Amino acid sequence: MSTSNIFANIPARVASEIVERIAHSSAVTIERIISPRGYASPGGFWYDGDRNEWVLVLQGGAAVLFEGESSPRLLSAGDQMTIPAHTRHRVEWTDPDQVTVWLAVFY
Amino acid sequence: MSTSNIFANIPARVASEIVERIAHSSAVTIERIISPRGYASPGGFWYDGDRNEWVLVLQGGAAVLFEGESSPRLLSAGDQMTIPAHTRHRVEWTDPDQVTVWLAVFY
Prior knowledge:
The first copy, chain A, is an all-beta fold. Helix content of chain A is 0%, strand content 48%. Chain A has no helices and nine strands.
């Protein structure tokens, strides 16, 4: 067992989303995802995952819009939510002042 | 989807370990675990999990000893590790000055 810190090696700026796999099995994938400052999903794009996703904001903040809803959910550091499979959603914006770091568990 | 904060409702002191389920499926369980200040696993006790466990310290700190090793791994806030199934381990101590909060994913 090796240990590492979830906040290590976070660049101050990234040009596009960086996805790092932390752990993986046939049933689950755990990732650290770094979103650029002031990021938004491409226009008209909706994430539509095959698996459930539990997500925790480790740093920064974001607004996540679910299809059919009029306003996005605002997430800050420490905020978490579970997104059931095939629940279409998109990132409306992320913190403009720092990269946003997510912990995501797909299962 | 409801959101909540992973740092919400953490008591300043707890008498024994508190385990809260965050998400669950047949394949994975995500928990927040709060350990008392200055906690240690019962003498001679080894955790021996049927599932892999990925663990992240959210607050506090701990020393985790693996069977057959001479010294424990020291974990602080942000430190993570994966503990394969049936890897016997015990908590030697936790932070005496605050409760220690773990995020654990069993899979």
